[in-house]
Amino acid sequence: MGLPPYLDLSSPMVDNAIVALWASYNIAEISGIHKELGVNAPLTPLLMGGIAVKMLSKNSNEESPLNRTVKDIDYVVKREQGVSFVKLLSNLSIIAGSKFHHFLTSNDRRFNALRAGDRYRVRALDWSKPELPKVSWVDIMLTK
After folding, report:
1. How many separate domains does the chain show?
2. How far apart are CA 46 and CA 94, in angstroms?
3. Beta-strand pair 72-78/134-143
4. What is the domain range of residue 119?
5. CB atoms within 10 A of CB 109
6. Cα angle at 95 between 138 and 116, to 5 degrees?
7. Which of 76, 104, 111, 140 might form a disulfide with 120, Cβ 3.0–4.6 angstroms?
8. What predicted TM-score, i.e. pTM, was given to this entire model?
């Protein structure tokens, strides 16, 4: 994928974002193997927020004022790809293993329905402490 050599891959949320981007860009091959995904069209999500800063700034990966722990993932996705991207994230553990498990709570489903296709929220597992994973979140903003 052409990741910058300075990128700190010790953050589980950074790993999660990289795997989700990889799966999105390779959806044609993946959907051939995992037909239950129901997603075959190419997806083109973009990162924003803390992970985007880590991807673009060497200083944010070293001891500096820009370095911080990433606690969530923020994406921008084309409106017509939003439902497919949520579907992909919800099945990412089938593709890449349980470390990349995403899910929707009933509150997330309500949140997503009330936003009428402007924004989605999905939950992810943060494995910063493998003995005690915690629930984190993924925000998906939609654009035209």
Report:
1. 1
2. 22
3. parallel
4. 12-60+70-143
5. 12
6. 35
7. 140
8. 0.90
